[in-house]
């Protein structure tokens, strides 16, 4: 811009929106990115994964099921028992026992401890 030239409102106005639109767009992009992260990641995105240590066996008595085996695992209160049950179901050594139904006297492997 030259100091001796007279500018019209249109000259000044046409140059201004480009800067403003970029600066106004940034907060919306930030908020949009956080919203997407919250929807797809949720609070679990920021949590440490559950870790399991040791292995022990659990023998089923009459009338017991997998939840009874899950309750025998020493776990942090933050970890839902359903998560531990899923881990026990996914352990390869339990595949045969769990595939044909649990019978009295059968054993499954369970972790000794679950923690975050």
Annotation, overall tally of beta strands: 3
Share in β-strands? 15-25%
What share of residues is helical? 40-55%
As a whole number of angstroms, the C-alpha radius of gyration is 30 Å
Count up the helices. Answer: 4
Terminal Cα separation, in Å?
62 Å
Strand order of the largest sheet: 1-3-2
Per-chain topology:
Blueprint: H1 9-40, E1 51-59, H2 66-71, E2 74-75, H3 81-90, H4 95-99, E3 107-115
Parallel strand pairs: 2-3
Antiparallel strand pairs: 1-3
Please tell me about this protein's structure:
It is a single chain. The chain has 116 residues and is of the alpha+beta class. Helix content is 46%, strand content 17%. It contains 4 helices and 3 strands, in the order H-E-H-E-H-H-E. It has a 3-stranded mixed beta sheet. It is rod-shaped and about 100 Å long. It starts with 8 loop residues before the first helix and ends with a strand.
Descriptive labels:
alpha+beta
A few lines on this structure:
The protein has 116 residues and is an alpha+beta fold.
